[in-house]
Amino acid sequence: xxxxNVYQRYDAIAAYLEELSKTYSSRVKVTSIGDSYEKRQxxxxxxxxxxxxxxxxxxxxxxxxxAREWIAPAAALYVIQQLVENYEQNSxxxxxxxxxxxPLLNPDGxxxxxxxxxxxxxxxxxxxxxxxxTDGNRNFDFHWGEVGAxxxxxxxxxxxxxxxxxxxxxxLRNLMHSLTGRAKFYLTLHSxxxxxxxxxxxxxxxxxxxxDIDDIASAxxxxxxxxxxxxxxxxxxxxxxxxxxxxxxxxxxxxxRIPISITMELxxxxxxxxxxxxxxEELVSETWIGIKAMAEKVIEKY
Length: 302
Ligand code: 0X9
Ligand code: ZN
Hints:
By secondary structure, the protein is of the alpha/beta class. It is built from nine helices and eight strands. It has a single domain (10-118, 169-301), classed as Aminopeptidase (3-Layer(aba) Sandwich). Helix content is 36%, strand content 17%. Helix 2 (71-85) packs across helix 9 and helix 6 crosses helix 9. Bound molecules: N~2~-sulfamoyl-L-arginine and zinc ion (ZN). Residues 66, 69, 190 line the site of zinc ion.
């Protein structure tokens, strides 16, 4: 079991995934999609209804590419808990689909933000003598470095020395490509600001299927608004937030051809990257309501 009254560390997250794979071995498989720079395993959990993966469609979710955004991995863990431990209420989400969740894509940065520097955002691989870390969400090879990404190693939005310079972004890229044709929905969790964002982040132009993505994101926002009153802004990254190229969401749609690609920026609860411990559970359960509504719509349409 896992509790949502603290921000769980890497080891506790790994132990929880391991526990689920043992307790629910017919429905859960935990794999490593690669190692971080500091050699932590990048865990992915595959959740099914027990019928196996066959060639089912996939919902792919990740969190924690940005180290300091602690509420995002917590929300991913809550999704995992609901799908696995509250299976009876959520089995309709697993009839024709398989979920693959990477709850902590940047464990080195996450641990560093707990132990050394609370506001750390990037990965941890050294770049120069003086500066370490690449912004994982500027490191994907789709219009890489064109806008909203720094070429300076010390910057928080450093694009990396080359596209896919980081083992963490390589691992997610490889996972996406291994799911070509099957993955219909890619959702990446961030914080903060209450946004449901979709491509493109590299241009103010919109993808040809933007209306389909907007429908899904809007269903998520509406479900949350109805449940708790929390409001989300829905729109393309460039048009409602800012232009920034090299994001995983743009790559998922533009290169891996996952048709529904959404970045969800969770709430701050008035405390930026530090929603109070007493608020974690209500934030992640509210987030789950939105994710569930989006998934239900994807499943019905694709
Ligand atoms: O800047 C980002 O990477 C995301 N915001 S955050 O505050 N969590 O850092 C937004 C990313 C939106 N997607 C793209 N720009 N591709
Ligand atoms: Zn982020």
